[in-house]
Design brief:
The protein folds into 2 domains: 190 residues, no CATH class; 164 residues, no CATH class. Helix 13 crosses helix 15. The longest helix has 28 residues. The chain has 17 helices and 10 strands. The chain is of the alpha/beta class.
Length: 371
């Protein structure tokens, strides 16, 4: 992954930029003035190429997830509706993010469709690209502001490619800057490396694969260890609060349902583990009977709503936080070790998709042509 190439100096610069507020600069127009000790165009171009597209991508993944959690009324009022509010809109914005090349103007301005000089534009030499002018941006930015402002302006222009008008693109730009105000870009970048790394998603994936190669090793305690790794992985997918993420809305929506699959495996193994106390085994059997009521399988929604603590009193999951995946993902009533293997393969398929998206983010890079 490219972030392994980061120097300590680069991370220190990014960390420093996170501690200052995003005032003035290109987000405020600048009024034609300059800032003390402005960043050099060459340094701004390097900062953008290395980090800005990645910051924008991780913010979009988090924004998609947060938009998905809004009520229908809230969605109609959100600036994000142009990006995620219509069928397949999310696919278009990520497609443009991956395909749009950046025409970086080192010694001139970008030009909009009316011939006006701009810091950014989608009026480019090749349709579908983005123009950014470090020539105009650099005098208005110091090192503290450069990464945040460049990332937000870049997403502003991507929003135009999706179909946003100027007020809509400005609203999206301001929303991203608001989230960047409280964010540490260095933590986002380092978090992406962790999210796809050995100690996070990949760690859980490798553990499941090891058990599937030797099913005799599958025990309740081993599944508990995997569940703990999975929970740590989920925490690692939030790169900086909930605003920057390593996965999008669809996979995030599936975390809880697939956690239910893991719980069902634990209960089955617990109920049949002669090394456990009889009382504990009976509680596991009682839990299974309540969750499935002799059905061969149930939706993750039904499973989670029927699940209580082992005292039989407290409902663990709040349905207000359920997504559509709880009805799509099925949890099987396990009857044999072969069923356990099948359920583990079901979970592994999910883990593989999570790991693939986390790695895609970590490896993301945009083609930049300096002009």
């Amino acid at each position: 992954m490219k972030f392994q190439k980061l120097t300590l100096m680069a991370l220190c610069v990014i960390s420093f930029s996170a501690s200052l507020v995003c005032a003035g600069g290109i987000s405020g127009g600048g009024g034609g003035t300059t800032v003390p000790d402005p960043i050099k165009p060459e340094a701004l171009a390097w900062t953008f190429e290395e980090f800005a597209p990645f910051i924008a991508y991780s913010w979009l993944l988090g924004a998609e997830r947060n938009f998905d959690g809004l009520s229908e009324a809230e969605k109609t009022q959100s600036p994000l509706k142009i990006l995620f509010g219509s069928p397949n809109a999310d696919k278009r914005v990520f497609a443009y993010l991956r395909s749009a090349q950046v025409e970086m103007r080192m010694n001139s301005a970008c030009i909009d469709y009316d011939g006006v000089e701009r810091e950014g534009s989608v009026h480019t030499m090749k349709p579908g690209n983005v123009c950014l002018s470090v020539f105009l941006m650099a005098p208005k930015l110091n090192v503290a502001l450069a990464l945040k402002e460049a990332s937000a302006l870049y997403l502003h222009e991507i929003s135009h490619l999706v179909g946003a008008n100027e007020p809509e693109a400005v609203a999206i730009q301001k929303l991203m800057l608001r989230d960047l105000w409280y964010a540490n870009p260095a933590k986002i970048i380092a978090g992406a490396q962790f999210a796809g790394g050995t100690w996070s998603v990949e760690g859980a994936t490798l553990y499941v694969k090891r058990l599937l190669k030797n099913p005799a090793l599958i025990t309740a305690s081993e599944i508990e260890k995997i569940a703990e790794r999975f929970d740590r992985a989920v925490d690692g997918l939030n790169l900086e609060g909930e605003s920057f993420s390593a996965i999008g809305a669809e996979l995030h929506d599936e975390i809880l349902p697939y956690r239910a699959v893991v719980e069902s495996i634990q209960d089955y193994l617990c109920a049949g583990d002669s090394k456990l106390a009889l009382k504990q085994r009976r509680e596991c059997k009682r839990q299974i009977a309540k969750e499935f009521a002799d059905a061969k399988e149930v939706s993750a929604r039904d499973y989670l709503l029927r699940r209580v603590d082992y005292a039989g009193k407290t409902v663990i999951f709040d349905p207000r936080y359920f997504g559509a995946a709880v009805d799509r993902v099925k949890v099987s009533n396990l009857r044999s070790r072969a069923d356990v293997v099948k359920a583990l393969k079901q979970w592994l398929s999910f883990l593989n998709r999570v790991e693939a998206q986390a790695r895609e983010l970590g490896d993301f890079k945009v083609t930049v042509s300096r002009i």
